[in-house]
Amino acid sequence: GMLLWVACGQAPETPVESTIPPPPPTEVPPTEPMITRSVVEGGRLYDRWWTEAEVDEPAGDQPLWATQSTNTRSGTTTWRCKECHGWDYMGADGAYGSGSHFTGFPGVLDASADHTLAELLAALDGSTDPEHDFSAMGEQSLANLVTFLKEGTVDVSPFIDAETKAAIGGDALNGANLYAANCTACHGEDGRQLNFGDEEEPEYVGTIAADNPWEFIHKVRMGQPGTNMPAGLDLGWTMQDVIDVMAFAQTLPQEAAASATLSRGGRLYDAWWREAGAAEPTDDNPIWARQETNTREGSTTWRCKECHGWDYLGAEGAYGSGSHFTGFPGILAAKDKSVDEILAQLTGQVDPEHDFSVIGEEDLAALATFIREGLLDVSVYIDSETRAAVGGDASNGESLYTATCTGCHGVDGREINFGDEDEPEYVGTIALDNPWEFIHKVRMGQPGTNMPAALDLGWSIDDVIDLLSYSQSLPTEAP
Question: N or C: fewer beta carbons within 10 Å in the chain?
Fold first, then answer.
C-alpha cells in the first residue's frame, strides 16, 4: 500500500531522514579561459596585424630587416608578415622572389606540414629567435595567426598564370554573380567606388586583380584588416569561387573614370581645401565685405557654393532669400565660357579679390572643367514650394540606395550624422530640407572622402532624382 500511495503523488506525514552520508566535497581545479581561434582573423593579422589587433603601430624597422638589403622599404611595412613571406606565402620562392619586394626570406606555405602549433607559436613570440618577436599583438591574436599558418595557407600557384597573372580556370560569369551579391555595395559595379591608392596612382578592384592576383586572393579569402569587409571563407566560398571572382575582377577597369576630373571639380566647388588637402582658410574671402546679408564668416565664405548656390543660380535661385542670401550672381551661364575665361575669373585676373590660386593649378583646371561641363539646371527636378522631387521613381531610387549607399549610410540613412546631437542631419534630412545640395553631393561626392560620385558610376540625372525621391521618405530625426 505504501508504494501505491507515494506513486499517486501523496507525501508521507512524517518525513524520513536519509541515513546515507553526503559525498565529500570535491575540489574543482581552476581552468584557464579557452582561447577561440579564427583562421580568418589570423589571415588579416598576416596582412597588417596592428590594424586588426587594434594595438599600437610598431615603431622602427623589424629587427630582422637589417639582415637583408634588397627591399628598401622601412618602418611599419617591415613588420607585415606578407612583406617577408609574400601574399602567396612562398617568400623568396614565389611572387616576391624578385622585384622591389624581394628579401630572400623563406615562405611559410609548408608551416602546416612541418611544424606543430606550439612550434609555430614559439617562432612568433620570440622563443625561437628573440628578433622575430610579434608578441605585441597579444595572446589571442598570436593564437589566431598560428591557426591561419597551420590551416589557412593555400598554394595558389595553380590558379595564376605566372607570366600574364591571369586567373586559370576561373568562371567569370559565376564571379560576376558573386561580386554583384557581395561586393558592389562598397566597391561599386565597376570596382571603382573605393580608391585604395590616390588621385595620381589610383588602385581599384580591377587594378589589384590584374597587377597582384596573389594579394587579391588573400584579401578576398580573409578580408581587409580593420574593416567590415566580409571574408570569402566566412561566406562559405570555395577556392573555385574566389578564382571565379578574380576572373571577373580582371575584366574591371583599372584606371580612373574620365569623369573623375569633373567630379573632383564639383567637390572643390563644395569645399576646396578639404578635397585638395590644403590648409583651411581662416579669414573672410575679400569679396565677402561686398555684402552684408549673409553673416557667416571664415572658411565658409570661401566655399563657391556659399555665393553661387548648390543650384549654381546664386541670387536667382534657392539662395535668393534667407540666411544664405548674398546677392552674388550664379554661374550657370559660365558653362558657355571657355576654360581660359573661367580660369581668369578664378585666379584673380578679372577681379584681384576673386583669387583662388591657392587651390593649385591642377585643381583649378578641375574646377574650371566642372564649371564648364558639370553644371546643371536642377530647378526642373524640384518643386520650388514643397521641395519634393519632381518625376522621381522612388522604387528605382530604393534599389540604387540599397546597392550603393547602405554600406556607409545604413538602411535608413541614419548611420552617419552630418550635424550634431542637438541638430542631427541624416540622408533624409538633407533630401527634404536641401534637395539642391543633395543632388550636387550625390552627383559629385563628398569632399575629402571616399563617397562615390554618381557621375563616376555612370548614373543619369534621372537616377539621381530617383534616389532623391526615395531618400525623401527616409527618417529625419534621431532614432
Answer: N
Q: How far apart are CA 83 and CA 62, in angstroms?
A: 11
Q: How far apart are CA 370 and CA 270, in angstroms?
A: 11
Owner of C-alpha cell 553673416: 295
In the structure grid, which three cell numbers stand for residue 399, read together? 534599389
Tell me how far CA of residue 431 lies from CA of 244, 437, 438, 440, 450, in angstroms: 39, 8, 6, 11, 20
Radius of gyration of the chain (CA): 31
φ, ψ of residue 355 to 5 degrees: the values are: -115, 115
Question: pTM of the full predicted structure?
Answer: 0.61
DSSP codes of every residue in 266-280? HHHHHHHHHHHTPPP
Q: Where are the beta strands (DSSP E) in 283-355?
A: none
Distance CA 61, CA 66 (A): 8
Residue 301 phi, psi (nearest 5):
-70, -10
Residues 127 and 81: their CA atoms lie apart, in Å, by: 17
Dist CA 442 CA 404 (whole Å): 11
Cβ contacts of 463 within 8 Å, gap of 6 or more: 396, 400, 454
Is 5 a residue whose pLDDT tops 60?
no
Residue ranges with strand state E in 12-151: none
Task: With a cut of 80, say whether residue 457 has pLDDT above it.
Answer: yes
| Cβ proximity of 25 and 109 under 8 Å | no
Residues in contact with 339: Cβ distance below 8 Å, sequence separation at least 6, in sequence order: 365, 368, 369, 372
Closest CA relative to residue 318, chosen from 391, 383, 389, 390: 383
Residues 6 or more apart in contact with residue 472 via CB below 8 angstroms = 388, 389, 428, 431, 432, 435
Q: For 220-265, what is each residue's pLDDT tens digit?
A: 999 999 998 999 999 999 999 999 999 999 999 888 776 788 999 9
The continuous run of DSSP H or E covering 350 comes out as none
Output the 3-class SS for 191-246: CCCCCCCCCCCCCCHHHHHHHCHHHHHHHHHHCCCCCCCCCCCCCCCCHHHHHHHH
